[in-house]
Specification:
The structure is a homodimer. Chain A is α/β, with parallel strands linked by helices. Chain A has five domains: 135 residues, 3-Layer(aba) Sandwich (Rossmann fold); 144 residues, 3-Layer(aba) Sandwich (Rossmann fold), CATH 3.40.50; 158 residues, Rossmann fold; 77 residues, ATP-grasp fold, A domain (Dna Ligase, domain 1, 2-Layer Sandwich); 114 residues, ATP-grasp fold, B domain (D-amino Acid Aminotransferase, Chain A, domain 1). Chain A has a seven-stranded mixed beta sheet, with helices on both faces. In chain A, helix 7 links the parallel strand 12 and strand 13. In chain A, helix 6 packs parallel to helix 7. Chain A is flat. Chain A starts with a helix and ends with a strand.
Chain lengths: 697, 697
């Protein structure tokens, strides 16, 4: 559908200019690099630019079909008019390069909304505003004002920052890295990452998808699309504004509303996206994917002519969770055949300082044939005897043919430059440090897992939604937004076990309730005004007989009156005391970008300051629920470590799935928490002890 | 004392060669670059090399003083003979470049020991064997076979890997980075890092000390020297073999016995060393120190012409623990005066894409004058209007004059090359990513703290060493090496509070002991064969009367017989039950490189799998003891978080100091542990509940 945007027969430049240094001239010149393309300058003040006939208006262009694509570079306030004219002229695709929109304040935002309406009215597709333009090396289109040359390649890149487009193109030009499509997203008023992910998915010239994003426009849709696309092509994203400082900077930059970083981490993970921590990492990973097959495991062979570099690389592998390979006997024997006696025949293989290209070739051949090796890292230091370009040549040939990934780190400066040139001529990256090569190898390994993960969709759980609906409606009709203990029964609609509990408004009622359920019991204050019950003495544990209940009731009432004299108290709740379990928390917050963000963690004091919690965007699959539970650091405590019995993890997983269904069914629930969920030993289930949720007002 | 090694008047090359490509020729040529140096080739087979008269033997060199320095490049087995001749000829300094020593196996190790003896016999200093040689750019000495040019600079570098020397020189040559002294350490048979740290300390041409090490030769001495040196010059070390995989590779590389990584971390920290995680980091940090003054705080201003880069850099600052500066009103006003209206006047300052050198200059001047700014990071993207070399020129001038550190990231490739050239000509580093610039700024900030830390020496605590000595002697006389509960009294010699406990050999004795100390009590099995008492039912808590003691005694005996029928049981220990405290652990292991390594952590299950412990090499100072306690992640739990009372941290600190003294006084204690130490609420002290230690056999 975006075919004509990236492979047009004719392109109009609205705001074309004769003046060198002006954007309207730079765009024109870039387009004219492709002699087969019909380029139409639009400018009311001149008749001709760079030998092309110039028209005052797109409507005045002769013929029925005016242009497949219009690139707009006029000042912001004139942009809506130009778009309107494009619409009238039947132009279906526009790129708005001009700045001065949402990123520039209130008036800009109004102009941007106007552009969006016009696009909707005419059914037009728009990239930008506030962007650098686009490049398609396969079709030969350069509809940008970029000053750099873009080489052909298989990496599709989109960036929400025009300057980062420039930086990337400049970096790529120096080392000869290439791109299939290059898109400056700008303010993403109409077209955004989701549309382009789908474009790249079906683009035969794209093998790798890379992006710099400051936010995503539609989180839930993004996850769905990324899940599908990541099965065929790796998606590598650097998302800035990770921290609160960065987020503030983001909103002043492109006016993007930044969601929480935890939500991005969760959403990217669920979508199969590889998150890079920096621009450098994104580019490093992209280049590894652009040339390497995927490793089927995490066992890496290192070949080096410098012991020290080998050790540093082994350290880096270990830190990244990669293993140093254990070679077969036969591999070691074959290495011994040609390598000098003082060489190291175990991983890392040290071919010694005077090794030539033939020894590197032999060592690479031998280790790659070993069934225990999934990939290799080649390290070359420029020692006095080292034939750097010769080794580069051999290694490059291997990389091109190998069925296992090979990455290299020619380490140094002056004397490795010739080797880098050789690698560049093959389109092969040289990593300037072994740590960078290792990080990229790790990305390849991780993507192998992503690509081959089980296809699973969240299942719709059966529930008594009618009961839940009536419950929510009743709660909504109350004035307060936050609901607690008294609303525990909503969990029953989703078959989540709830502790036996009864409400009592007076002391006699409390004693009666306790006797009815059997001792020991727990007493909790019931008040819409009290959120942290412990802080005001609002919880009493382990009450063993009527006397205990009486003493607890009286002192609780007096404590609460003391600490929170204004709190309205509606009574107390008695719960059956549950022993022998472990407390966990299941929660949900609505993220502005991704919607319902589920949280799981251990209960108690530790969770608060260890921040040891896991997240996922609902609705979740069984695998995602399991992962939420197993990915917290304190998982061994519930899985059972020395002296601890194993908890019923399956019941936690089931409860997560049920909460996921509940918050998906009722978008009016803004926040939700079961705290604690008491998890019993394996096979004995779990039970919700208290809840808290907030409804939309 | 090493003066003549690095600034000799005459140098002999033993094993000098005419043949191009041979090490003996390369060394000769490098030495001859300095026309003022008297170079003397030694080779029995020729009379002259490269126009210099050649002698068969160093002894045959005419004159009284033969040479200030001899560089030996003959095969390993001939090296001891050559050293012996040097000794006879009165040569005081030798560099052995030849390989084939400790790193090559048993025979090599024997040869190396022979060289060491000869050096001791003649009082000679030796660098190597198995090294690349040394370079001193101030004196003009190049006594190495390095093929690269070494530029003058203020960074002194030593490396345990010759190949890493080569990589570093090659890297430096490409970008024009310079060194004061460059030392390939080789096998460190005689001279090692400790001697060179002291040399660099007093070297007027050295401002920054950098090292690649695979181990240190004398850990305790290293800490002492580094503590002193790091007060005047930064010491940046990359230590490889961090992981078990890497450590194995280290020992096969230079035959270094790798101590534990935890000990290196602790020793480096105590020595004021900045530990780099990679070669790249070491070089990045070194270059920042080589040009920048130190920042007096962690508030960083970012100046950028690209919003996206600014956000990524703000994220990186936050992750590194640096703050984005809050500008004074006046700063913002002054920025507004010259910057365009659409610019961002808050940190990160966005001067916009078309900014010229003058705007960068203005912005830098203004933010650096702000009292809230301690340092600046300048980001430059090559946009179409950007005068890259012009900006580089202005920024370089500022960096040279500024009293606050400025680091830069000219981001891109082709079009920033001209900017990099300008920076290189000023000796100023360009960081290829903002993350690398931020990491280096963080290193500058950290060193400011190190340089200004309080001078403190471990205090010798008074103790009843006589009592402790008799105790240790008695324990040593027993056959077993491991001692436990029954030896608690050794703590009393160091004034460490010990729980009231009594030993009982029979049930009646046990009841009598319990009645004597008062209920409730804890009962523990006493057996030299049982180390994990809990696993065999060897601990019973909260015994409240004689009946409890009887039941516990009988079932414990039966349990222990069941689980460990062969264990010799000498009785039980009764301890006063202590409630209301928190369990912590204080331990010590002897590290092969650093000696007594103290450990501190919380007790209980968490500590086992969170690995949340801190380390320091004994003897420790009060500040170090405090840091051990406060640096664990679970520190809030003992400091007091919501719902938790604060523990008596001072009593933990005192106990750490006492244990530090104990293990320093008695090197025959190989392992030591108080587990648990029960810490009471603030002001109420702590008490040791159980110990375990192992003596040298």
């Amino acid at each position: 559908m975006l075919e004509k945007m990236f492979n047009p027969n004719s392109v109009a430049v609205i705001g074309a200019s004769r003046t060198k240094g002006k954007v309207g001239r730079a765009v024109l010149e870039n387009l004219m690099q492709n002699s087969e393309l019909k380029v139409i300058p639009i400018n009311p003040n001149v008749d001709e630019i760079l030998g092309l006939p110039c028209y005052p208006n797109i409507i005045d262009v002769p013929g029925e079909a005016k242009a497949d694509l219009a690139v707009i570079v006029v000042p912001a306030k004139m942009v809506p008019g130009s778009i309107d004219e494009c619409g009238q002229a039947g132009v279906e695709n526009v790129i708005v390069i001009s700045a001065g929109f949402k990123e520039a304040g209130v008036e800009g935002a109004r102009l941007e909304r106007e552009c969006i309406s016009l696009c909707e009215q005419y059914g037009m597709k728009m990239i930008g505003p506030n962007c650098l333009g686009i490049i398609d090396t396969a079709s030969g289109l350069n509809a940008s004002f970029a000053a750099n040359v873009a080489y052909e390649g298989n990496i599709a890149l989109m960036s929400q920052s025009g300057a980062i487009c420039t930086v990337t193109l400049d970096w790529a030009e120096r080392i000869g890295a290439g791109f299939s499509k290059f898109i400056s997203l700008g303010n993403k008023a109409v077209l955004a990452e989701n549309e382009f992910l789908q474009l790249f998915e079906n683009d035969p010239s794209t093998a790798v998808i890379a992006a710099y994003l400051e936010g995503v426009k539609d989180g839930p849709e993004f996850i769905k699309i990324a899940q599908r696309v990541s099965r065929s092509k790796p998606i590598i994203i650097v998302k800035s504004g990770r921290t609160s400082v960065g987020s503030r900077a983001v909103s002043s930059h492109t006016g993007t509303l930044a969601g929480s970083d935890a939500a991005y981490n969760a959403g990217f993970k669920q979508g199969g996206v590889i998150r890079a921590d920096s621009l450098e990492e994104m580019l490093d990973y992209s280049r590894a994917f652009s040339v390497c097959p995927l490793p089927e495991g995490r066992n890496i062979a290192i070949i080096t002519n410098a012991g020290g570099l080998g050790i540093l690389t082994a350290d880096a592998c270990y830190n990244a969770g990669l293993s140093i390979a254990s070679f077969e006997e036969n591999t070691i024997e074959r290495l011994r055949e040609k390598l000098p006696a003082a060489a190291n025949f175990y991983d890392p293989v040290d071919v010694l300082g005077d090794a030539g290209a033939d020894l590197y070739e032999h060592a690479l051949d031998v280790v790659l044939e070993d069934i225990n090796v999934n990939g290799a890292i080649v390290l070359v230091s420029p020692q006095s005897m080292t034939d750097v370009p010769g080794i580069a040549e051999k290694v490059a040939e291997k990389i091109k043919k190998s069925k296992k990934p090979i990455l290299c780190n020619f380490a140094g400066g002056s004397r490795i430059a010739a080797g880098e040139d050789v690698l560049n001529s093959y389109g092969i990256p040289n990593y300037s440090s072994s740590e960078r090569a290792v990080a990229s190898m790790n990305a390849l390994c991780n993507y192998y897992t992503i690509k081959n993960r089980k296809q699973e969709q969240p299942e719709k759980l059966s529930s008594d939604t009618e009961f839940a609906r009536s419950f929510i409606n009743r709660a909504s009709s109350e004035k307060r937004r936050t609901h607690g203990l008294e609303s525990m029964d909503i969990l029953k609609a989703y078959d989540i076990p709830v502790v036996d509990s009864r409400i009592a408004k007076t002391l006699p009622e409390a004693i009666k309730a306790a006797e009815g359920m059997g001792y020991p019991v727990v007493m909790k204050i019931l008040s819409p005004d009290i959120s942290h019950k412990t802080d005001v003495g609002g919880i009493r544990l382990n009450l063993k007989h009527a006397d205990d209940v009486e003493r607890a009731y009286n002192s609780m009432m007096s404590d609460v009156r003391h600490y929170m004299p204004e709190a309205a108290v509606t009574g107390v709740q008695l719960q059956k005391m549950i022993g022998g379990g472990k407390e966990v928390i299941i929660g949900m917050d609505r993220d502005p970008q991704f919607g319902p963000l589920l949280m799981f963690g251990l209960g108690g004091t530790y969770v608060e300051f260890l921040k040891d919690v896991s997240f996922a965007v609902a609705p979740i699959t069984v695998a995602e629920a399991k992962h939420m539970v197993s990915s917290i650091k304190t998982y061994p405590l519930i899985a059972g470590v020395r002296g601890e019995t194993a908890s019923d993890i399956d019941s936690i997983v089931q409860t997560l799935l049920k909460v996921s269904q509940l918050v998906t069914d009722f978008p009016e629930i803004l926040e939700f928490e079961i705290n604690p969920l008491m998890v019993m030993p394996e096979g004995e289930g779990c039970v919700a002890m208290d809840i808290r949720f907030t409804l939309e007002s």
